[in-house]
Write the structure tokens for this entry.
Amino acid sequence: MRLSGLALLLISLTLSSTLFCIHPVQCDHGEEDELFQEINKYRASLNLTSLSKNENANCFANEMAGEFKGEACTNSTGANTVPGTEPQFSNYPDHLTKCHLNVSNTRDGSVMPACVPGLVPSLVLDNFTRSLYSANLNDSKYTGIGIGSQDNWIVVVLTTNTSQGSFVPETDDNSSSANVISQFGFIYFTLLFLAASFFFS
Ligand SMILES: *[C@@H]1O[C@H](CO)[C@@H](O)[C@H](O)[C@H]1NC(C)=O
Ligand SMILES: *[C@@H]1O[C@H](CO)[C@@H](O)[C@H](O)[C@H]1NC(C)=O
Ligand SMILES: *[C@@H]1O[C@H](CO)[C@@H](O)[C@H](O)[C@H]1NC(C)=O
Ligand SMILES: *[C@@H]1O[C@H](CO)[C@@H](O)[C@H](O)[C@H]1NC(C)=O
Ligand SMILES: *[C@@H]1O[C@H](CO)[C@@H](O)[C@H](O)[C@H]1NC(C)=O
Ligand SMILES: *[C@@H]1O[C@H](CO)[C@@H](O)[C@H](O)[C@H]1NC(C)=O
């Protein structure tokens, strides 16, 4: 009985970690997922619609983060940049192509890089909600979001639901909160079962 309980625990742990990793994005980049949820809480506090994940924007955000990677954080980079002085990358079009995008469907989008040593979640959130970037987060025209990070850099890309800013969304409305809930339920049930099997053995 004891052995089968242990086996059950092992099996359930394996299963639940597999479930957790169905979306690799959520697996590897906790900061990104956390920022995604915090931004939507911020939007909710302003009675704005929540932003849905956009895979192409996500891809593009990662590409941009790769460009900034290695650059030091200063008081004139990232969220502290004076608008209009952001660096322009010559290989911008290549990054668009890599993410199945082109200038026509990204024109109305918004790319916001931030530099925070160690990507400390609360500081990262402040960099978006307490800077000039908040003007974009406050804007009801944005409906989608992509987030990418490399090193100390995290990039948020906002998309619209118009053809000039759609980033050609693939609908990826994964029910991450539902996943977590069902998983807690599963683990809880397993522990209960395990406890019961010890009790009755
Ligand atoms: C959001 O909506 C609620 C209920 O309609 C209202 O009480 C609240 O003042 C609104 N908040 C903002 C920031 O508009
Ligand atoms: C940025 O940092 C430099 C050096 O630390 C300082 O001299 C400058 O005043 C700062 N600028 C702003 C706008 O805070
Ligand atoms: C962008 O892609 C669309 C659809 O694939 C195409 O019609 C359009 O010509 C492209 N625009 C540019 C500037 O490449
Ligand atoms: C963004 O993060 C950096 C690094 O932690 C910090 O120095 C800066 O004050 C933050 N900016 C905002 C607007 O929160
Ligand atoms: C965005 O909205 C928040 C909350 O209403 C406000 O504090 C902030 O100043 C706004 N940002 C801009 C750039 O207007
Ligand atoms: C686009 O978003 C706006 C604002 O959220 C909404 O009012 C509108 O119905 C949306 N249009 C489409 C085609 O989804």
Remarks:
- Residues 176-200 form the longest helix (25 residues).
- The chain has two domains: 1-23+175-201, 29-173.
- Residues 54 and 171 are 7 Å apart (CA to CA).
- The radius of gyration is 20 Å.
